[in-house]
Request: fold
Amino acid sequence: VSENTMLESFDLRNDRLGLGDRIKRNEGMEVANKNSKLLILGKPGAGKTTFLKHLAVDCSKSKFQANLIPVLIELRRIYSDDWTLLEAISEELELDNQKTQMLLEQGKLLILMDGLDEVSTSDFRRTVQDQVYKLAKEPKYSGNRFILTCRTQIIEVVQGFTSVEVA
Reply:
């Protein structure tokens, strides 16, 4: 790509040169439907949280993954070092851990986790990320869907998750 071509294709809204030439664009719902483990990246204010909430509402209304129960976890609300993802899911569902594990084993949950970048410290962020990875890769929980959001510049790829960036 020449310098002139890059300047001609400059995308002011996305603040990147040649973005349209490099990245395939897909509809958000299509991507979310296709991937059972999805990491949504984006700049602050790009719409990550709004999209996650939209998925939760659509799931509740049987317009998206109608067979699942949406669970929205706002990761910025983690204040305790002994936090666990299983307990967070149980708390959101207002169930005990045993009943939550039963739902996980039945593949009944759409687990929406918002704001990995908003976890208080990088060490604890790593702990949360490891818990998400371990739960999502567990074969007995394979029927569930996991969608995680994070600012673009904060995180590397989560193993086993398809990464997309909000345009």
User: Anything to note?
Assistant: The first strand starts at residue 37 and ends at 42.
